[in-house]
Queue: 4 jobs
Job 1
Amino acid sequence: MSKEIIFFIVLLLAIGIFSWTCFRICRFFRLTKPAFKVRNIGKRIGVVLSVAFGQTRIMRKPVIGFMHAMVFWGFCIILIGSIEMVIDGLTGSERVLSILGPVYNIIIGAGDIFALFIAIFIVVFLVRRLFHAVKRFDGIEMKPKSHKDANIALSMILLLMLTLLGMNTFYLLSTENPVGTFPVSELLAPWFSGISPYHQHLWHEINWWGHIVLIMIFANILPYSKHFHVFMSVPNVFLSRLYPLGYLPNMETITKEVKMMMNPDTAYAAPAEGAIEEEVTRFGIKDVEDVTWKNYLDALSCTECGRCTEVCPANKTGKKLSPRKIFIDLRARMKEKGPQLIKDKSFDDQKSLLRDCISTEELWACTTCNACARECPVSINHPIMIMDMRRYLVMEEAAAPAEINAIFTNIENNGAPWQFSPEDRMLWAENITDNQNNPVIIPTMAECVAQGKQPEYLLWVGSAGAFDDRYRKVMRAFVTLLSHASVDYAVLGTEESDSGDIARRCGNEMLYQMQAMMNIELLKKYQVG
């Protein structure tokens, strides 16, 4: 009975400390903003099965990916045995789940095999970290503490596997009628058969207690280390953004303002009498209180593996941007400022995530190519947060670089990123001939409507197609093909304006939505859709 009491006290202490840690972390989520509604549960489960349990993204590096996947799958199997140990520890039973019969034999046998493989692979990981200069493990954001943290976690996992194999081995030796199948431990048991029964039982108890106590210690260390992803990765994948990479969500506050500006009835109207003024919200992200719960969840889930930074084209060309650093900095800043914000929401330490942690040079280096988000094994979307910080710089501080401000001005005045007159949008279409040297006529939507025609297709030329010398050649060749194939199409001509996408990706959501709504109205006018 004393063993059960001691186990209960140790378990209670471990659960208590872990619960307190989780409570502290959960309080920080109260400081964050809403992100999106969690829907499409079936699709999310499919993503979890593929990305989290299938380890599909990890497998992009086949050898090391397979090893990591084996460690993950092994942990999933061994977890069942750990649950059994907790039940045995509380009740004084021995192998309580053996009532499952053949299923139990499969689970325990698989766990025994996985324990050996995991131990071998963890040794490989440790050797790789300690003796091989893996470039993605380094970086300005990777402090010595990060490397020590990884080595400690890997060493603890190795000890967990060794104590599990030791427990199983001495269980076979110290028990007359053992239950379960132990393929690896059965091979190890003869090596220790010469030990006295007393010492066999003693070593079984040492390994049993060592294994379960290590689990409890490990679980309580994880929230303070990069290996917190052991707990957070599956929830983060489940709660990942389901829309395609590259999609940027609208800012609803901006949408509302632009609609009011473009509506003659509301643009200059005075506020209704007795109307409650809406709270002024900050555009974009300046500090931790501006991030969404998903941003912070991403930060907690980050494995610091460096796969995102490894594939980042900006980082590869020597620029300061490291997508990994963005979330390491967010996690550190929340740890620094969060406790004070919980006490006083108006707390200001005269520092911020933007500039003090993440420089503007890093943010403007991002090409929004989404290579980082595609590569991340736990489905973190880095560009979304980078874009929100750009939005703050542009719409709150008007602090975009001069070259980008010039682009904004050109789009506002000329409907294109360059200083070309809107009247020159059809110059690209002049003097086009086919292979028979016959002129190719490019019809416009206005001409078609005037003639009572409705073309089957609208060709969106875009600013690059209209003004860029290289893309003009592409567009001229393309319309030649369309004409040769007798495709019924038309272009908007001088009525067309820039899509605003470049403004959006530079953080000017206001200008983008104005351009988008004007283009939508134009398309509606010609019944396109």
Job 2
Amino acid sequence: VEVQDNVKSHASMNRSYRLIWSEATQSYCAVAETAKGAKKGGGARTLRRHLGVVLSGVLSSVALSTGLGSLTYAQQAPPGVNASAYFADVKVALLAPKLTQLPLLNNVAQGQVQISQSQADKSAAMTVNQMSDKAVLNWSTFNIGANAQVNFNQPSRTSVTLNRVLDASPSQIFGELNANGQVFLSNPNGIYFSPSAQVDVGGLVATTHAIADADFLSDKMQFDRKGSASGIVNEGHLNAKLGGYIALLAPEVQNGGVIVAQAGTVVMAAGEGVTLKFAQNNSLAGITTTPATIATLVENKLAVQAPGGQIILSAVALNKLQAGVINNSGTLEASSMVSRGGKIILEADAITLTSTSVINANGPLGGGHVVIGGDGTTQDETRPASQVGMQEGAQINANANESGDGGVVLVRANPLDPNSVATLSGVINAKGGGRQGNGGHIETSAGQLTLGSLTVNAGAPMGTAGTWLIDPYDYTIDANAATAINAALVNSSVTINTIGNVSNYGGLGNAQGTGNVIINAPLVWSSNSTLTLQAAGNIFINSSISATGASAGVNIFYGGSNSSTAPTAGSFYQFNLNNPGSSFISLPNATSNLYIANQSYTLIESMSQLQAMSPTGVYALGRSLLIPGVYTNSVYTPDFKGVFDGLGNTVSGIQLINSCTATCNIGFFGVATAGAWINNLQLSETFTLTGTGVAQTFSDYSVGGLVGKV
């Protein structure tokens, strides 16, 4: 393998060299580029096998220590991020450890341990027998060769060993690391688990952060960066026993292998400080983080599995110009085989779910809880994202596979920030069980929210449909958004909300701005789902809304209103009546439901129903009516004092003829007085005014198209 070193110092040194495998030292050695490599052993193939972390592109930035300088392989920083400040070095030694390499102990700082080891030509083993519940070991080096293993025998599964590495180089795990209890491995210069690494422990913390002995011994599991800019890279197989945990903590954490914690917790966290929060049963319940003062990155490219447990990915930077980034192109799996799905949380300044991203929190008794970009409550102490991207092909599932309710999926870029951005495609599901159960809750929020080819399903074949909350700053429903909403309304109710606070599920809403909702593309569904437009400001209906389900519903909550709160003064909802036949709400079933502001409406579906209205009732025309007929003076004769909303619909085919004596009120409504409210009605009518041929005097004669007399 030829390597070109780009180091600028030591100009007299030859920068071109080759790496060849030395059987004597069981390592790669740098030699002149003209040197011959041994054919036996396949040196180039072995290098690729051991350094797949470099050659496969898993690392965003890898500094390779060769003794000849620093080689850096870098990929582009995310859009909008200062590239020069983005990458923190993830240091991985170029020279793989010997096949039988074992750690070298410096001293036992705390606790009681006995260490023994055995070594053969092609294998080696070290056993750490721990007699105290806690122990602190300082190691000169901590590397495990591919044919070596280190076994921790601890008093119980709650026992912990803190292994502090004093080496100036990263730790490299190519072999086996086993423990019946918990192992903490701390190396400020980085830790690398190769593709051949096998870790089987009760719990593992692998970190570049530091923890003081006093904090460790007093169960204050607080890890601080202390200036480290190195990272943790896994390409191997990390396994925690039932109910255990795997925690990888560093400015950069990257997984290109498999991490498993059955009914336990997996944490991949980057921050200035990370505190692990343990429950009474010694399970890892959660974390708290301090935003980093440098750029941070958490990336999963393969598989993280915590069946029935929880997965937490966190990368938050103090300075938004040096963003904390999460990239997921692999699988995050917290589904349960026996109960409800688990919990998955992604917290960062910028989050990208690529086209191959799969996030599952399914369960036979109910869906789990998935949070992308911040919860919006204090429950999980998560911080909102500035950017969230979900590419076409990405999936998020929190389904009840058999019985029970669908789960909760929150995908958010901080809706309190008008500059936050979420661009969403792919699939989001929170479906109820096939045997029984209701649909779940899905929320997509941002200051600026763009829906691409997004498919949302919170349906329930045997229960009540769930909800999809669209929670932006202001929102315009264009053709793409309408496609996504129409598809969701097949099996889910949809709420578009621009109000400052939503109590359910910690919705954030917007704190300022106009908070308008604008409908620019048709919304059409045939199910019994409900569409709710809930605006802090005004609602502009420039296109059609049509629901044919027998119990379908439409809620028009403008000016901050809801079913029990009146709208703010000066706010309004508006149809575009200058474009007849394209701006309306159609609810052609009298059993459908309509709320406008804090008022429920009775739907009118025929002329006979219209003529039978109570003079003080609250009504809306559920459909356009084409009913040719001749009416004397008016269609509705009583003095109307109630509310009638045409919803942009049209009544046509009417002919009004006069038959007057002393009083004559000619119009669709003959008389409307004392606070009557009639609006949004399109009329196509013909007036025929005839006389007797004899001069007459009328004391009260009124003619109007909509209302004869007001």
Job 3
Amino acid sequence: VSVANFNNNPQFSGNLAADPFSLPGLLQRLGMLEESQSGAPTLTNEQLAAFQMQFSGNSSEATMPSLTLRLGEAEVQASGSARFATATAPMNISYSVIGGDIDLSPYITADEPTETETEPEATTAAPAEPDTPLPTGLLSSMNLIGSVSLASVTVNNMRFDNINLYTNIEDSVLDLELTPVSAFDGSLQGSLRLDARSDEPALSTRFSTDSLNLLQLAPSISRFNAVTGNLNMESEHSGRGSSVDALLNTLSGSTTFTVSDNSVDIGLIKQVFTAIAALSPDGASIQQWPDIIRFNEMGGYITLDEGLQVNQNIKLRMDNFDITGSGGIDLAAGSFDYDLLFTVLGDPFTQTIPIGELYHDISWPVQCSAAFDDPVGQYCGPDFNAVRDIFAQIGTNAVRNRLEEVISDQVPEEVQDSARGLLRNLLNR
């Protein structure tokens, strides 16, 4: 490092380099990464990190013409500059990052459960996490433009190709854009805008996927293996507030999706309809359905209105099976609560789920309320009181229809209207 004109207009320049080192170990020593029970992962010489940087500047600006970071065999090249704030202009920053194939798996520590660990007999509610304020002050203090371009990133067997992320901050507005990234045999992309020009910052997001293979995605998302296929999804949401909690509590928008080439584990649906059929007065039973079903069409939507905990509306259509309802999720408690209607549709819909006509086109009330960690079999169950009322109404309708046939066939035409009126009075009591 060299410094000149220290007392007048200081100028500096230099080179900084580090021999191969353990990146997780360094982050743990700096307190930026929590140390696990097993400590930092063991890395081979080919997996250690190293870097070399050139920099220069003066009292008004600083530049980094070159930064070379090596992670094992991968190399990342970066450059950037910063023009310091003045009385009339905020700080201006620009940067560029270009890299090849990066495998981050060796640098990620995963805790392994020990043989002596046992499940606690009782759990207490975890203390609420403190709310996180948004960095609105930072957005107003600078203008920034930059890009990250990586050939691929691999994390624990998940590979993302053709990553291009663009960042822009101008006039207290942050824009992030992720162009299509190849992943899970499909692609994903998204954008985010945070407008902090007012006292109540506004957030807007867009996210979409194209032919994302759910079978490959399932290992990374807990309990996501009940559905396989290719996910196409479009999502737009907005929120407002000066903290993360405020944004979540005002989040509104919609997500639409379809799943092609699908297969669905309908075990929970079978469980619900078996319970419904057990309440049938004539003892009718649901015929045996396969555990896994492929649907010709599968899709739906989820809408949010002022937050996640209430006012969610959902719809799922799988050929002749329809789910609609409303409710919400409590992220802090790790639970959900929905009031749903399960409907098996009759003709002309494709009869992929076969069921007797008695159950066609009837919306059966189902309550889905549980913790995410509960067994899936405990997620949903029928509203038994409402189901009994429906069966009672079905019985009344069956009697009415049979008597209507008798009146039409056997009662003289001149007294049929009187007979029908008497029938209505009797059955409506």
Job 4
Amino acid sequence: MKKVLGENNLFTETQKDYMHFVNKHIFGFPRLEQYEQFIRLLIKVRDPKLSKEFTPKKVYEILNDSLQTLSDEDLRAMVDAARGKLEAEMEELKETKEKLEKSYKRAGELKAEKSLLEREKEAVGTIDLEEADEKLRQCRNRQEDARKEFAMYCQSIENHRNAIREYDAAARGIQKNIDAYQMEIEQLVHEMDELQELICFSGHGQILSLWKNSDGYDECKKIRSEIEKLSKNVEAALEELKKFKEIQIQWDRLSEECSSLEEKKAQAWRQVNDAETMEEALRDDLIEAYYGLEQHNQEFYLSKKELGQMAVYIQKYQGMPDYGSIRNLIGNIWEMKNQKLGSGLSALEVRKEKLAESLRVCREELKELEKVPEITPVRREILCRTRKKLTENHISFLPFYEAVDFTEHASVQDRDLLECQLEDAGLLDALVVVQKDYTRAMKVLGEWSDKILCLEDSGKMRYCKLTAAAGDMELRKMVEQILSNIGEEDDCRIVLRSDGYFRHGALEGYSRPETEACYIGESIRREKKKEQIRKKTEELQLLQQELETSEQEISGVKKRIGILQEEFHGLPVFDELDEAIAMKKDLNWTFEKCSEECRKKQKEKESCEILKKQSAQRIITRCRELPYERNIESYEEILGALHEYAYQLESFQIAGMRFLPEEASKDMHKQLIEKEENAIDIV
């Protein structure tokens, strides 16, 4: 509910929180108790029957009920406050009396001075005029002071008269309160008299003499204690009457239940026997179903040893806690078969990926072979960019293998060895440039990367197994100069012997050919390219066939895995056997429960019989001193009347506590009025 309303809406979990929220945002009472009093007053005023008997007395009762009930401590505090206020006013009156006495004394002194001034005035003829003038001035000053003092006395008298009027008005208000409290007390006494006819309370006669007595508060407390004691005795007796009635009802119910349970017990025993027969039949059906898996399933089935274990597990099976052994056996078989098929599938997929990669590489190599005019040695990427840069700078060059060709003196073996020696010596793919472009070519190579052959004519006879094949005459001449530096003698700059030995500067060694010569000679390169394209095409076809075969094998293994999964999920289930076992357990439990309940109910019936006798004895003991009819209805009525009587007595006590301070306040105001009148007479 709180989540549905959201954070912006009010949500309270207790009635007190809700009341606090409503009072805060609507009524605004300082304290929550005042709001509760207001709600009780509204409920009382909006009573549907109120309009029929809306009298001044009823209004008084409603307003009285709406007031908060004062505790003993509250009443005591109110009395102490009234007493303190009375003492403060008496002290103030005493101080006022002292001031008035001083004023009367001063007035007498002023009268004496006035007489003296008059005598002095008569004798002024015999006194010096200046002295008489000074005395006259002093006399006039004293006369002015006396006039002011007289005005002050008049104001004091008026103040006393105002005080008398205020005290008289307060006394009339107090008298109204006294009359209201007296009417309330008489009404409460009348209502308690009516309740007395029902409850027959022995201390009722003392109440009428308490409300005008100063010790009535303590006496009311004693009477309230007696009422509470009587209420507790009535409650105890009522409780015993209710317990006896409950015990009687329970005894009748137990008698009926004992007969019903005996019938249920016999029926439950017959059902247990039927459930055992059905359970055994379902166990046999499950064992036969697992033995038949080999005939019906293609991938998932059990061996004879595993079938024997399964039969033992099924015979011992008593529910899901025992299914662990069966689940482990079936799971191990499925995992073994699935793992075997999965391993085969993984191997086939790896092989397929390798074949696909080989097929892609083969296709790319075939495309590259078909694009190039003739085959070339494997070069680094920077070498290709260098040679492109030389072409852009219009520098003529040829790789050495394109600039030469084999002569007729070179046999097939010589050709293979010679090409291998040139490759090992780093000469096969070296660039041949003419002498005039050497400097520019070296500048380009300084920024990029490659190697150049540019030699002067040695003056010797050219190498007999190689001949110049360059079409450009300048390049052809440079090739012939290079060939003049190749020979089998040790004094040649480039040594190439028939035993495989080679030397090129500081580099020397022996070569052993592993492949046929394929770069030197244009015809050889063309033929080699065709041969490589044919081989690559055959390799591509073979790879495609192998890839298709691999995909078919993968599809077959996946199909077998799907069949295995389907057969695994289609294994015979234990649901019906679980239901039969559960039903048997429930029936056994029902039978045992019926048997146990029969024993318990019989014991309960015997115990109930004892409780019934004990309860009857307690009723006699509890009700012996109470003058009421011994039934639940009578005692409930008496208990309600006692509670109402206690409430009326509490209201009577509160009204009395309010009446006495008002009486005291009334007497105090009478005394204050008398003192103010005496003060006026004195003035």
